[in-house]
Design goal:
Strand order of the largest sheet: 2-1-3
Strand content: 5-15%
Radius of gyration: 17 Å
CATH class: Alpha Beta
CATH superfamily: Iron/manganese superoxide dismutase, C-terminal domain
Largest sheet: 3 strands, antiparallel
Mean pLDDT: 94
Length: 212
């Protein structure tokens, strides 16, 4: 089953003024498509071609050495970006409530402290990569990964990913990554993130079984 780039749930210009239409078109239609094309080409005809990206990323050590880096980069690009598009909404922003909001306060002290830590993780990521809100064991944490690496490869459950590759922001924000992150925070769909948080027990069990 070949990977595909999913359609956006909103128009390309729906996230303006935070994320501009041209960036969304290039990011979704070209950059994401490139990861999909390379992953499909690498996996075609192998016993791994029907395995979902999330599972592949938890089993990288089982892949042939000649496939491992390509899968990490491109199946990672597929998984990361599918999460990203669903994490954003024209009605996004604000703060999460309920169990997710309580968990963020317990882990970071306040929502503001969490936002500051996520921003710092994104600003301080050298070169290209991501900043993540993850469930690390029984507690939430912020981590950063290079390139298209995903926290699932380290046994963590990703809840929210912030893309800090330059192609995610350079057309509008140039080298002002902090300004981009401030704007991006206004697009987060906290209902989607809360749904992922509710799935943490099941996903944690799944990852443990895959790594057993």
């Amino acid at each position: 089953m070949a990977y595909k780039v999913p359609d956006l749930r909103y128009a390309y210009d729906a996230l303006e003024p935070h994320i501009d239409e041209q960036t969304m078109r290039l990011h979704h239609d070209r950059h994401h498509q490139a990861y999909v094309d390379k992953a499909n080409a690498a996996l075609a005809g192998t016993r791994w071609e029907d395995v979902r990206p999330r599972e592949l990323l938890t089993r990288l050590d089982e892949l042939p050495s000649e496939l491992r880096a390509t899968v990490r980069d491109n199946a990672g690009g597929q998984y990361n970006h599918c999460m990203l598009w669903r994490s954003m909404s024209p009605q996004g922003g604000g703060e999460p409530h309920g169990e997710l909001g309580e968990a963020i306060t317990a882990a970071f002290g306040s929502f503001v402290a969490f936002s500051d830590e996520l921003k710092q993780a994104g600003v301080s990521r050298f070169g290209s990569g991501w900043a993540w809100l993850v469930c690390d064991g029984s507690r939430l944490a912020v981590v950063s990964t290079p390139n298209q690496d995903n926290p699932v490869s380290d046994g963590r459950v990703p809840l929210l990913g912030l893309d800090v590759w330059e192609h995610a922001y350079y057309l509008r924000y140039q080298n002002r990554r902090p300004d981009y992150i401030d704007a991006w925070l206004n697009t987060i769909d906290w209902e989607v993130v809360a749904e992922r948080y509710a799935e943490v027990p099941r996903l944690a069990r799944l990852f443990r079984s895959l790594n057993a």
